[in-house]
Write a structure and sequence with these properties.
Blueprint lengths: L6 E5 L4 H12 L3 E6 L2 H14 L5 E5 L5 H15 L4 E4 L14 H29 L3 E5 L13 H20 L6 E7 L19 H14 L3 E4 L1 H13 L2 H7 L1
Helix pairs in contact: 1-6, 3-4, 4-5
Length: 251
C-alpha cells in the first residue's frame, strides 16, 4: 500500500489540469502548494478551496518556471512553509509551435525550452528536497503524443514530452533502490485551456473526468500511467506500432 502524500506541490496550477488536480487532491484532504504565473487565478482558486475545505492548507506563490533560480527558491519556500513536501507534480508546460521550417523557430524553441529545460529545473528542485530526506514522490506530466513523432503544430510539443518522459525514467532509475518514487503520467485528450480551440475530437474527455483518472493513477504511484485507461492504454499500444502514414491521418 502506498503512503499518503499529504503535502502536494503542483506547478502550472492556475488553470486547466493543474487547477483541477488541486481541487481533487483538496477533496481528498491534502494540503497544497500551488504556483503559476497568474497570481490572480491562484488567489481565486485558493479562496475556492478554503471555502470548500476550511481545514486544509493552501499556499500559493507566483512562479514562471522559465525563471530557473525562482523555481528552486519557490520549491524551498513551499517546503519550509508546509513543513516538508511529500509529492511534487511537474505540470507546467506550453503547447506553442508549428511545422518545422515554416519560420516559427521561436515558438518551437519556447515549447521545447519550457517543457524540457524548465521541467528539468523543477525535477532538480524537487529531487533536491526528496534526496535530503530520502522520501517523496515526483510526478511528471508527459502526454500520449510523446509516444510518436507528430506533424504540424504538434511536432515540437510531442518531442518535448518524449524528452520529458525519458528524463523522468532516468531519474526513476537513479533512485530505484531508494524509497523515493517517480511517476510519469501520459494523459490522452483531456479538455484544458491549452486545447480549448480544438473541436470535433471524439476522444476528448472533460477536465474533471480526465483529471480524476490522473489523480487515481498518481495515488497508486506506478512508474508509468496512461490515462484515461480507455481508450488510451490500447490506443497507446497502437500508436507505438502503427505506420507513420496512419498516425499522420488520425493524430
Amino acid at each position: 500500500m502506498t503512503a499518503v502524500r499529504q503535502r502536494i506541490l503542483i506547478t502550472g496550477a492556475s488553470s486547466g489540469l493543474g487547477a483541477e488536480m488541486a481541487r481533487q487532491f483538496a477533496a481528498k484532504g491534502r494540503d497544497l502548494a500551488l504556483c503559476a504565473r497568474r497570481t490572480d487565478r491562484l488567489e481565486q482558486l485558493r479562496d475556492e478551496l478554503l471555502t470548500a475545505y476550511p481545514q486544509r492548507t493552501v499556499a500559493i506563490r507566483a512562479l514562471d518556471v522559465d525563471d530557473h533560480d525562482a523555481v528552486f527558491e519557490v520549491f524551498r519556500a513551499f517546503d519550509a512553509e508546509l513543513g516538508g513536501l511529500d509529492r511534487v507534480v511537474v505540470n507546467a508546460g506550453i503547447g506553442k509551435g508549428t511545422s518545422v521550417g515554416t519560420g516559427r523557430f521561436d515558438a518551437n524553441r519556447a515549447t521545447v525550452y519550457t517543457n524540457v529545460v524548465s521541467a528539468l529545473a523543477q525535477c532538480e528542485a524537487a529531487m533536491e528536497l526528496f534526496r535530503a530526506r530520502d522520501a517523496g514522490h515526483l510526478v511528471v506530466v508527459s502526454s500520449v503524443s510523446a509516444l510518436r513523432g507528430m506533424r504540424g503544430s504538434m511536432t515540437a510539443y510531442a518531442a518535448s514530452k518524449a524528452a520529458l518522459a525519458t528524463l523522468a525514467e532516468g531519474i526513476r532509475s537513479d533512485v530505484l533502490p531508494t524509497p523515493i518514487r517517480v511517476t510519469t503520467v501520459f494523459p490522452g485528450y483531456i479538455r484544458s485551456e491549452m486545447n480549448e480551440r480544438v473541436r470535433n475530437t471524439p476522444l476528448m474527455v472533460d477536465t474533471a473526468r480526465g483529471v480524476a483518472a490522473m489523480v487515481r493513477a498518481v495515488e497508486r504511484e506506478p512508474a508509468r500511467a496512461t490515462v484515461p485507461a480507455w481508450p488510451w492504454v490500447p490506443g497507446g499500444w497502437a500508436l507505438r506500432r502503427a505506420p507513420l502514414g496512419l498516425i499522420r491521418k488520425v493524430m
